[in-house]
TrEMBL record:
PANTHER family: PLATELET-DERIVED GROWTH FACTOR RECEPTOR LIKE, PLATELET-DERIVED GROWTH FACTOR RECEPTOR-LIKE PROTEIN. Residues 281-377 form the Ig-like domain. Keywords: Receptor, Signal. SUPFAM superfamilies: Immunoglobulin (SSF48726). This is Platelet-derived growth factor receptor-like protein. The keyword Transcription regulation does not apply. The lineage of its organism: Eukaryota, Metazoa, Chordata, Craniata, Vertebrata. Forms a complex composed of PDGFRL, TNK2 and GRB2. It comes from Scomber scombrus. It holds the Pfam family VEGFR-1-like_Ig-like. Gene3D superfamilies: Immunoglobulins.
Length: 391
């Protein structure tokens, strides 16, 4: 009879005291464990990152009699409780008819549960989480299509009362709650504004409640179905549509349509607004007309940053005279860069007329775009007037 190492130290304590009782107890308990174990073995490939120590299947209790197994060493299990005493190891996704109860059981002491954001924020008493000695149970009753989403079990690693989630041992399952009335997970907004950033994947989160629904993407004006080729735009039943490398022509009002049986429904509208988005923060270059300037002469400090066309770069200055409120002026401009790929140069020139002693020090320019900011500095020394009146 194979036993799991997980079988608690408590059981063996009983064994030494009431031998006979304990054997019966273990056999009974073991059957349950073995069943869970078996169902899990068949689907191992689906399971993300198993704990390596216990990934060897069932084993006899006699092999490691003194090991006190903690949640950290144990394999993470996520099982769906079908009805009393019946478990099934969950795969990547499961479907539960809206209205039915979701019950998930996850091995570990303790475990932490992650649920769809809407459930976390809007607790109306339907979600119940109970921690038993060796496993946690999540129960969600009176379910609706809106409960569709990812449910995650994180085993906790505890030292005394200090516990932390073991992210690498988390087990996730995506649960669909097919709802005969709602093909899309309802949204509280009539429309949603989404920024399309140059070359950054954009998701249209039209989440269906049933994995069987056929989903298409549509443009409102002109009214056409958008081609989903899997490369430029792809669909994932757990996520919605992704526009992988947004371009200006992707902008506009779009919506999804789901059909299943006789039902055909439209999703929330997505207003896609195209934003020229830089690939990286700017890399400014600073240069002073001279590193050593005489009192009374003029100084120019220029700051230039080259970037994508139509992507704004803002340049700001810090200079020594700032503290005493010395007013300085800048000449700013944007010009195309000749040759090669389309680039543009943003330049700001700080003009210091009739340099005084207070102008000596560090000049810093900061160039900023939507991705971030970068500063560069240069030092300028102020020297006494050249050639005093004496011959
Ligand atoms: C679930 O629905 C039933 C029937 O409508 C209701 O009596 C019960 O209070 C609901 N339970 C919760 C926790 O909302």
């Amino acid at each position: 009879m194979p036993l799991m190492s997980l079988f608690g130290s408590k059981g063996r304590l009983v064994l030494s005291t009431f031998l006979l009782y304990a054997i019966i107890f273990e056999l009974a308990y073991c059957q349950n464990d073995a069943q869970e174990q078996r169902t899990s073995l068949g689907k191992k490939a689906n399971k993300p990152k198993l704990g390596k120590a216990t990934n060897k299947g069932p084993r006899a209790v006699t092999t490691k009699p003194k090991v006190k197994t903690t949640a950290a060493q144990a394999q993470t299990f996520l099982t769906q409780v079908l009805n009393r005493g019946k478990f099934t190891k969950v795969g990547d996704t499961i479907s539960i008819q809206a209205g039915d109860t979701l019950e998930l059981r996850c091995r570990g002491k303790p475990v932490h549960w992650g649920v769809p954001l809407y459930l976390e924020e809007d607790d109306d008493g339907r979600l119940k989480i109970v921690q038993h000695e060796r496993y946690g149970v999540l129960t969600l009753v009176n379910t609706t299509g809106a409960d569709t989403g990812e449910y995650t079990c994180y085993p906790m690693y505890c030292e005394d009362t200090d516990c932390r989630k073991e992210y690498d041992k988390a087990v996730k399952v995506f649960v669909f709650f097919p709802d005969p009335q709602e093909l899309f997970v309802p949204s509280s907004d009539y429309y949603e504004v989404i920024q399309l950033r140059t070359n950054w994947p954009t998701v249209l989160p039209c989440q269906v409640t049933s994995p069987e629904a056929k989903v298409t993407l549509h443009r409102e004006f002109p009214p056409v179905e958008v081609v989903v080729d899997g490369t430029e735009i792809s669909f994932n039943v757990k996520k919605g549509f992704t526009i992988h490398r947004p371009r200006p022509y992707h902008a506009g009002a779009l919506y999804c349509v789901a059909s299943l049986g006789n039902l055909r429904q439209s999703s929330t509208k997505y207003m896609l607004i195209y934003v020229n988005y830089p690939m990286a923060p700017p890399a400014p270059v600073i240069q002073a007309s001279t590193s050593s300037v005489a009192v009374g002469e003029n100084l120019r400090v220029s700051c230039t940053a080259v970037g994508e066309p139509n992507v704004a770069i803002e340049i700001t200055w810090e200079y020594p005279g700032q503290e005493i409120g010395r007013p300085l002026y800048t000449q700013d401009g944007v010009s195309p860069v000749s040759g090669g790929a389309a680039r543009q140069q943003t330049q700001s020139v700080l003009l210091v007329d009739e340099v005084r002693d207070v102008d000596q020090g560090t000049y810093t320019c900061t160039a900023q775009n939507l991705q971030g900011a970068k500063s560069v500095s240069t030092n300028v020394k102020v020297v006494p007037k050249t050639k005093p009146k004496k011959p």
